[in-house]
């Protein structure tokens, strides 16, 4: 059966019990041993001008000192089994889903299920380089605040297709945001949320999937985003006077990111196969590539803990997802960059349903309220004075408050 006796793990009565199974992560001992051997034998680049701590402020990437320490920690101090046990302390499942053409897919998800009959279903969607684990601090706060019997929400954290623990996209056809949204929608229907509907909620790539759900499926009743990356609207100059100083700095940071920060994305999108091979060949290469983003995209006041970074990178490595999780960047850089307003202000992604937006000032593309309002029916907004690209890790308490306020304002 799909339900278990664990707290917050009882599937809704309308869920497809046969297609959803309890799940726990367990990486085989041999895979752990092979990983340690590869990591131990992986050399670092020799010291050079660009990788010295003195040049860190130039934004040239991870330093020799940081990667040396991270490798030593990962090899000799970090305990995967401890982290694995923590991940497994949250209810997890797999759902067997058939795509429209009959292709079988397995979708992994963590969840907190409520026993309240009127609990609001919320599907939270992650991005890259994150996994479902990014949001577990939020689930921890919800567990502390609510008993299973009075939790106001069903919180679903899927692993997107191609990401750790879910099936990769098929080999014989292209795969885009809309395809991932379709699979996530089928998951929510399998969980029994077709009649009453659900809310989508996401950041980074997950924000694009959440938006796609809202504009595509009637059952998705509202959407809350913490990320709304878009080019300046046509009337950006006219709107500038209405922006706060914080928002103006956010716009400038987004412009700088376009020139100095998104080379990784262009590589993902235009040489997807090559970078997939590179990141799959060495755990140290994967750590450098992903670690850089955790170091640079967080609010400096809320630096991401090294153990958290190592847990996320380990999930990618052990599940061989480094190459299969890059597909959205092809849509972005091979096609999307040529489309007006892409991504969040694209005409075909305008949200007519209730739309909420949380603004975090140190986001890598902190889009101002006046811009984001143009992308949909914004009925709720909150600007914070702290937080970056990873609010679930950096400021989970603020994110819980935002989600609760938004849901109470749109779900009657």
UniProtKB/TrEMBL annotation:
<dbReference type="GO" id="GO:0097176">
    <property type="term" value="P:epoxide metabolic process"/>
</dbReference>
<feature type="domain" description="Epoxide hydrolase N-terminal">
    <location>
        <begin position="20"/>
        <end position="135"/>
    </location>
</feature>
<dbReference type="InterPro" id="IPR029058">
    <property type="entry name" value="AB_hydrolase_fold"/>
</dbReference>
<dbReference type="InterPro" id="IPR000639">
    <property type="entry name" value="Epox_hydrolase-like"/>
</dbReference>
<comment type="similarity">
    <text>Belongs to the peptidase S33 family.</text>
</comment>
<dbReference type="InterPro" id="IPR010497">
    <property type="entry name" value="Epoxide_hydro_N"/>
</dbReference>
<feature type="active site" description="Proton acceptor">
    <location>
        <position position="389"/>
    </location>
</feature>
<dbReference type="InterPro" id="IPR016292">
    <property type="entry name" value="Epoxide_hydrolase"/>
</dbReference>
<dbReference type="GO" id="GO:0004301">
    <property type="term" value="F:epoxide hydrolase activity"/>
</dbReference>
<keyword id="KW-0378">Hydrolase</keyword>
<dbReference type="Pfam" id="PF06441">
    <property type="entry name" value="EHN"/>
</dbReference>
<protein>
    <recommendedName>
        <fullName>Epoxide hydrolase N-terminal domain-containing protein</fullName>
    </recommendedName>
</protein>
<feature type="active site" description="Proton donor">
    <location>
        <position position="329"/>
    </location>
</feature>
<feature type="active site" description="Nucleophile">
    <location>
        <position position="204"/>
    </location>
</feature>
